[in-house]
Design brief:
Layout lengths: L15 H9 L2 H6 L11 H10 L17 H4 L8 E4 L22 E5 L2 H10 L6 E5 L2 E5 L5 E5 L7 H4 L2 E7 L10 H10 L1 E13 L14 H8 L3 E10 L10 E9 L2
Parallel strand pairs: 1-2, 1-6, 2-5, 6-7
Antiparallel strand pairs: 3-4, 4-5, 7-9, 8-9
The chain binds S-adenosylmethionine.
Amino acid sequence: MCDHEPRPVDTRAICEQEAEVVEAADPWQEFYGDSLFLKRDWDLEDWRSYYDKMPGWDGCEGTGVGVSHFAEEVFRRREASRAFFPLCGRTEDMKWPPPSPGPTTWTPVVGLDGVEKPVRHFFEKHQDLEHSVEELEYGKLYKSKDRRLQVFVCDIRDIALVVLGKFDVVVDCGAFTSIHPRDRAKYVETVTSTLQKDYRYFLEVCHGAPPSATGQPNSISFREVKREFGPSRKLKFLSTEDISEEWAVDTFFQTYLVMEPKE
Ligand SMILES: C[S@@+](CC[C@H](N)C(=O)[O-])C[C@H]1O[C@@H](n2cnc3c(N)ncnc32)[C@H](O)[C@@H]1O
């Protein structure tokens, strides 16, 4: 997600007038004070308002290491690998996946997000993609000229499985942990229905936040992950980091793991 570091209150001795100037100069401080961040569960309207209120894109590149760090585990070299980035926002990782050894030299990537602003921003930033936009009954489709990258702009609850097709790899960074809890089961059902038999499901999950914590991402226990994704998957844990300091809470952790079918 856009995990721009919330800035801790500066405790240095400065006069009140100076403090006012410092605060006025940091639009992020005001942004993080917005009532939106007092909400625990965000629906698509909240995300739209988040992107509308955001002061800018700079400093909003995310602090996680992302999927490229775990390429060996996630993208095993094989014919015709196809990757899905649900709730992709504007993640740079969509441009990254390594070449596949099949008849084509690239990994086809499909993204999906319910808000157009981050998707438009991604394609405008990457002019080399020479994108076009197609209007759909339920949203829009952004496509690179070479068709390697396609990003649907629609509510994930509205897309038909047949449109998405099947994927070898799912990259779920801040997706499972961002979808409104009311829609979590449906989200898991939709995304797991797109998996090929021999799949890799890369998941970034944040857990262990204090019970009173609000805002995004949701804190979800491993127990909950296992319960939502079902017992038929093997979970391989790749790394866990203490992210409490950057989120200014007592406890918060970020784990990367891969799910794959049990043999
Ligand atoms: C944490 S952000 C995306 C992070 C991104 N995957 C990354 O790696 O940087 C979560 C995204 O979920 C999208 N979203 C939330 N609910 C959705 C829904 N029901 N359908 C489609 N997108 C949704 C939001 O618009 C937002 O861009």
